Amino acid sequence: MSETRRKPRRPCNDFLQMPIAPVGIIATPGGRALAERIDKQLKAERQHLLTRCALYENCPGFIRESYLIDSACPRFSNGEGKAAILESIRGFDLYLVTDINNWGITYQRNGQTVTMSPDEHFQDLKRLISAARGFGQRVNVIMPLLYEGRQHKISGRESLDCALALQELVRMGVSNIMTIDAHNSHVQNAVPNYGFENLHANYQQIKAIVNTESGFRVGKDLIVTSPDLGGLERCRYFAEHLQTELTAFYKLRDLSRIVDGRNPVAEHRFLGGDVAGKDAMIVDDILASGDTVIDVATTLKERGAQRIFIVCTFALFTSGIERFEEAYRNGVINRVYGSNATYVRPDALASEWYVSVDTSRFIALYIDSFNRNESVSRLLDNTIKIQALLERKGLL
Q: Which domains, and CATH codes, for the chain?
């Protein structure tokens, strides 16, 4: 029987849809840098669409110098805040952009300069939603790093913060929430009657790797590994598309001790075969302190792995970059790939071992498609694009 291949999708739907309303992008202070990048990409995408369908020229607000709506979130001297939208939003399709990890934003509280926490970013988002209060035709939230996404389940007498946050947003009038690579996509069950889009930047990550790494190999010369069993599904996607072996590590915990509220990891045990002479991709969603991935990379290196690439969606570097600098100098890791969908500390961006993966066009395409009621399936499934990329690079 002859092999059948999936028919490539058109870049857009067969029938170009009309916008439901003019796009308006409102950014929290933490999301402003991301919103500006999205705005630039959205403008370019809509100029391109105009060449395909001249009717868009007659749509109010379709082509504009900027889709950003001026807003402000000032704070009082004791740290309390408020939000104000500084221009008309009546009848707009609103997209509120926030980056809850952006600790590069500071403010004055009681005479001291303090950085903004995720809780404060989320409060600013709610303030802006409140300020919009019914003026916009639809309110959507763009939150690449999902607020409280790691607190998606409870153990004992714990709070279920992510579910509560999502429910609070929809109660305030939010129609749709877009995030990237949610730690656990099942959090959408908290708001089953509302739109929740969990996008993945797999294509952008693979594209960055093959364009950066000379002699990059797939198939039997590469392994994809998960630093823990919880990330296997994410790694399976990479392994299938790169046609390579899927491996994982198991965290063996010391149940006799409790450190920082949990049993410490005594050992990272490798679940896989021979890695000698192979390149390795360690794939995870969030890179926090980095202790786990560095330990995993060290184990793989001791087992004979050649080059080691760490691929994550959100590179937080919560404990600084010293361990990564040391691992790079000692030849343990070759590169770290993280997206620009969240704030990345400047010293990491300046490091030769760090590569920033651009997701702004990806998010802009989502906003454009959603505003025109077009399917976002092409953004959810990157299989065709990844296959075409690997074929162009001669890797398949």
A: 23-200+360-373 (3.40.50.2020), 202-340+385-392 (3.40.50.2020)
Residue 356's DSSP bridge partners are 338
Other Cβ atoms less than 10 A from the Cβ of 306: the count is 16
Confidence category of residue 243, pLDDT binned at 50, 70, 90? very high
Element (H, E) at 388: helix 383-392
Which DSSP string corresponds to 65-134? S--BPPEE--B-TTS-B--EE-S--TT-EEEEE--TT-TT-EEEETTEEEEPPHHHHHHHHHHHHHHHTT
Amino acid in the structure at residue 91:
G
Residue 353 CA neighbour count, 13 Å, CB half:
24
Q: What pLDDT score does 15 carry?
A: 54
- 379 or 329: whose pLDDT is higher? 329
Residue whose C-alpha is closest to residue 38's, from 344, 313, 364: 364
Q: How far apart are CA 23 and CA 367, in angstroms?
A: 8
Q: What percent of the chain has pLDDT over 70?
A: 95
Question: Quick one: angle between helices 161-171 and 118-132, nearest 10?
Answer: 20
| Upper half-sphere CA count for residue 128 (Cβ side, 13 Å) | 33
Higher pLDDT, 159 or 117: 117
Name which of 74, 61, 73 is nearest 24 in CA terms. Answer: 61
DSSP 276: T
In the predicted structure, residue 328 carries a pLDDT above the cut 90: yes
Please give the sequence-ordered ranges of beta strands (E in DSSP) within the chain, or none if there are none. 23-27, 71-72, 84-85, 93-97, 106-109, 112-115, 138-142, 176-180, 195-199, 222-226, 245-253, 265-271, 279-287, 308-315, 335-339, 354-357
